[in-house]
Amino acid sequence: MPLDILQRPRRNRRSENLRRLVRETTLRPEDLIWPLFVHAEKVDRPVDSMPGVSRLSLDSLLAACEQASRLRIPAVAVFPCLAPDLKNDVGSHAFDPANLLFQSVAAIKKRFPDLLVITDVALDPYTSHGHDGLLCSSRASVDNDATVESLCRLAVLEAQSGADLVAPSDMMDGRIAAIRQALDAAGFQETGIMSYAAKYASAYYGPFRDAVGSKIGKDSISKATYQMDPANSREALREVFLDLEEGADIVMVKPAGPYLDVIRSVRDAVDAPLAAYQVSGEFAQIHAAARLGWLDYARVRDESLLAIKRAGADMILTYFAPEVASDL
After folding, report:
1. Is residue 18 one of the residues assigned to a domain?
2. H-type helices in the chain, by residue range?
3. 214 assigned to some structural domain
4. What would the pLDDT profile of 264-306 be if each residue is shown by its tens digit?
């Protein structure tokens, strides 16, 4: 005998079209940012820990940007992978006019002027020790203020090469205000800042460091001395508020999937555009489980991104971007 109930939520789930009508969260190609790795070689080199991802030649990078434009992905984030002989303690190649990143950004903007290009502002691709900044003379810590000076120089050079958004990922104190002032003084008032505002000292970054060759060297300094403690959530709001006060145009939470609570907290606290980075470890673990037959690859991939969007992210940096966009 039927139950005598008026409210039956299942009525709105009984067909796909009805589910589409009442769907609260949708994922679009326009929500995605595609991180890309570039190196100076003429051939692509697969990243073993990131299935389907490669360090791209410049020609392949441009082909990827053409694909992004065709799929309505509005932005790419470009990360350089440099030969070890170009790295040193102070990351001086970051300021070389022949810097691979500058050449790549200029080539992208020449070919695809409407595609947004986001550049990383940090020294870890350039330093032999793998840290995001300059080491103190004792080599016992990363020198915050000296690093910020270098980051300002790098941000201006990235803007000169054509970057639409510079993205400080270093987590140094005060760097957003300093970079904003440096960009404005150099005439780049229109160049935006996407701040890695709440970047955690996460174990999920390993495959990325394989891709760019930025693993920590012999120095025993932990990145936990400048990146956030994974145990903290209220601190993320403090970092976000500071970066917005200092001039950030977009704030980011990184990683994304394990920090959905942080994304939601930030979304509830601020009206600013919010990005989330689905990092290399999140990408790799979905691939690994699917290869073992433990998960449905496409469904878990899509659900992971939908969860990030549902938590409050306006945009998602993800290595899944081209394949997801092609399915939407």
Report:
1. no
2. 16-22, 58-70, 100-111, 144-161, 175-185, 206-212, 234-245, 260-269, 280-291, 297-311, 321-327
3. yes
4. 999 999 999 999 999 999 999 999 999 999 999 999 999 999 9
**Catalytic-role residue among 87, 223, 254, 309:** 254
Residue 71 has a pLDDT of: 98
Joined tokens for residue 263: 């994304």
Residue closest to 65 by CA, chosen among 113, 132, 101: 113
Single pTM value for the model? 0.95
* Residue among 109, 199, 223, 309 flagged as catalytic: 199
**AA identity, residue 144:** N
CB 112 within 8 A of CB 65: yes
Catalytic residue status for 254: yes
- Distance set, CA 32 to CA 55, 73, 135, 215, 250 (Å): 20, 6, 35, 27, 14
Structure tokens at 53: 């991802």
**Domain of residue 41, residue span:** 26-219+232-252
Q: At what angle do helices 175-185 and 144-161 cross, to 10 degrees?
A: 40
| CATH number, position 132 | 3.20.20.70
Exposed / middle / buried, residue 234 (Cβ in 10 Å: 0-12, 13-18, 19+): exposed
Q: Is 42 a catalytic residue?
A: no
**Strand 45-46 relative to strand 54-56: parallel, antiparallel, unpaired?**
antiparallel
| Residue 151 placed within a domain | yes
Domain count, the chain: 1
